[in-house]
Structures are given as structure tokens and as C-alpha cells.
Specification:
CATH class: Alpha Beta
Helix content: 25-40%
Order of helices and strands: HEHEEHEEEEEEHHEEE
CATH superfamily: Chitobiase/beta-hexosaminidase domain 2-like
Structural class: alpha+beta
Low-confidence stretches: 21-29
Number of domains: 1
Number of helices: 5
Shape: globular
CATH topology: Chitobiase, domain 2
Radius of gyration: 21 Å
Distance between the termini: 79 Å
CATH architecture: 2-Layer Sandwich
Mean pLDDT: 88
Amino acid sequence: MTSALAINLLSSLLAFLLGGAARGLHQRWKAVGPARRVWRLGRSAEVVLALSDGPGHATTLPTLYEGDAEAAGTVAAYLRSVCGARTRIIRASTFSRVRDAHSDLVVIGGARANDLYKEIDRRVSMPYRFTLYRDRADLVRLADGRVFAQEVMHAKTVRDFAAISFLPSPFDPDRRIVILAGCGMQATVAAAKMVTADGIRKIARLRPPVTPFSVVIEIEIIDGQATKPHITDVVHWSIRA
């Protein structure tokens, strides 16, 4: 009786441990699988995150935009924990072809304040452009002129858009660039969440290819809180010769 009881207890313990290990592996795969399909980073990759330069960037006390800094922190933490990548955060104005161009890049911010974004766009001609106004911006699809218009009421954004682009680096064809460019701050933060734990499965389900690929996400801001982003446009495109 005692021997049989001990065997049953041992069998139950082993089943519990194996079940826990299997559940852990399944949860890990649910996290890592989408990240691999979307980010396509090599092992031990270094990822440089280049933020827009904030006000006073040409002075001895440069600043950053709050939304860009939040987006960079979200992405960097995710890449380290899920992808095992090494991350380094820089201001776009300090980008160096010697030091940074041979790393995978995440460019955070768009045409209003990120000069690295502007340089990449000149080199590859991305499928969207920003039309900038004093208090807002429009995102325009070049193929047909469709406009994704940021909406501002009483000096507060109520609807925002961001373009998320994946492409080979024009600085090093063996490296990747991911661009998170919002019309406004809230959309840039939402784009960062979309390519990390909060939304990466939605991107992964689109089966992003190695060739250039972009999505536009949309959010609403209600009582100061952003809704969950949803994908409102998808474009597969080619880098111009």
C-alpha cells in the first residue's frame, strides 16, 4: 500500500512538473514566434534605436520628446527580454555611419523632427509621406493620395495615425530597419506597442515578408486615453532603383 501510494504520488508530481514545463514552453513560443516572424533579427543582434531630436537638440542640454522616449523604452525592453537582442538608444542627430549603420535600426518619429527618417525616405522612397501643419499632420498614401488625417479638437488630438515600416537597411543590406512614425505622440507610442507584446500577433498574422512592408494603424483618444490600435492599411512595396 505504502509503495503504491508513493509511486502514485511520484507519478502525479512528474505529471505536474511536465505539464508546467510544457505550458511554460508553449507560453514562451507564443511570445517568441511572432517576434521572430516580425522582427527577423539575427542571434545576438545589436539594435540601435534612433529617436527624434527634441527641442534644444543643438544646445548643450538636448531634450527628447516624451512620446518618443516612451516608445523607445517599450521597444528596447521587449527586444532584450523576448528576442535576446542588445539595444542602444541614440538621438537621430548623433547617428554615425561608422558606429551605427551596421546594426539593425529602429527609427522612432517621422518627418517633423527625425532627420534619420528623412534620410532613409530619400534613399528608399517609402509609400507614405507626411503633410505637416502647425498643429497636426496628415499621413498620405502616395499610390493614390489617400489621406489618413490626424484630428485635433480644442488643441487636443482625438484621432491619430502611425505608419510602421519594415525594410532592408539602405546602409547595410544585411541589416533591417523598423520605422515607427506617428502623426502625433500618441500614435508613435501606439506603434511601439503594436510591434511588441501588446499587438505583435496582429502584425505576425499578416506574415510580413523580408521585402519592404508597411502598415498604418489608427487610434482614438477619449478622455486622454488611447484606444487599442487597429490596422487600417497594408502596403507591400519595392525600394526604388
